[in-house]
Specification:
This protein has 276 residues and is an alpha/beta fold. It is 33% helix and 17% strand. The protein has nine helices and ten strands. The chain has an eight-stranded parallel beta sheet with strand order 1-4-5-6-7-8-9-10. A two-stranded antiparallel ribbon has the order 2-3. Strand 7 (140-144), helix 5 (150-159) and strand 8 form a beta-alpha-beta unit. The protein is globular and about 45 Å long. The protein starts with 9 loop residues before the first strand and ends with a helix.
């Protein structure tokens, strides 16, 4: 069904796969410059020439791109040599609890994608029940949020210290790594069960990758290499740079991590968190 992950493999902890001929995505528009099919075969071709400090990427975690049950079933059923695990999308208030109930052998976590909700996340129902249920199943709860929502994620982490929480894109996305974002990231980092993905950070207009360097420097200082994971955000990132360039720019912008830190950032942390 998927990748057999060795202890030495580099892992890309944040990619998206889709096929609009099989499952529609509500947000997809032709003007976004994205392919109608983003397959494991396409990804393997893009990643083949990329080299992390651990070598080529040997496994990926696919995050559901939208939130329909049809897409979730399609993603879970994919058979691909690179695909080691799947993270499904949480539909707030879903009485069936389809995503969190699916955590198991193939599904390694559930993502709460709510950057358009209130800063305090009080308009996202079911977060506490979600954290309890996913933690009981041995899964990870991911948060896709804007920087103003990071203190609310920290509050969730405080209420659920045994739940493994991962913040996507360092809670930064396309915003500037300013003082408010740094304070929010350090607030979530104060909770030991929180990790973050260095994903979606390579920008088209970032001279010398100054923004990328600052974001990674703060993240390494706040969380340490052992609570950070590499993610390419492919194929969204391919609009900005080829896969190999995303890897190379991330590696060049990182502070020195040492051998153990490199091993964690580029694969070990993902293998542990997602039980790959």
């Amino acid at each position: 069904m998927g990748a057999a992950v060795s202890g030495d493999d580099a892992v890309d902890a944040h990619v998206h796969l889709w096929d609009l001929g099989r499952v529609e995505l509500s947000w997809f528009r032709p003007d976004l410059g994205l392919p109608r099919v983003a397959s494991g075969r396409d990804l393997a071709g893009a990643a083949d020439a990329a080299r992390t400090p651990l070598g080529p990427v040997g496994a990926v975690v696919a995050v559901q791109a939208a939130d329909t049950p049809e897409e979730a079933r399609w993603l879970i059923g994919l058979s691909d040599p690179l695909l080691a695990g799947v993270v499904l999308q949480y539909a707030p208030g879903d009485p069936a609890g389809a995503a969190q109930g699916a955590v198991g052998a193939r599904v390694r976590g559930v993502r709460v994608a709510v950057p358009g909700r209130r800063a305090d996340l009080t308009d996202v129902p079911g977060l506490d029940a979600l954290c309890e249920q996913v933690a009981a199943a041995g899964g990870v709860v991911e948060f896709l949020v804007r920087s103003e929502q990071l203190p609310a994620v920290a509050a969730v982490a405080a209420r659920h210290p045994s739940t493994s929480i991962v913040v996507c894109h360092l809670g930064l996305g396309g915003a500037a790594p300013d003082a408010a974002w740094e304070a929010g990231l350090r607030a979530v980092a104060a909770h030991p069960a929180v990790a973050a993905k260095a994903s979606g950070l390579v920008a088209a207009e970032d001279p010398g990758d100054a923004r990328l360097r600052r974001a990674l420097a703060v993240a390494v200082d706040a969380l340490g290499a052992h609570r950070l994971l590499f993610g390419s955000d492919w194929p969204l990132s391919a609009r900005i740079a080829p896969y190999g360039e995303v890897v190379a720019r991330t590696a060049a912008a990182l502070p020195s991590l040492g051998a153990a830190g490199d091993s964690a950032f580029w694969g070990g942390t993902a293998r542990a968190l997602y039980r790959l």
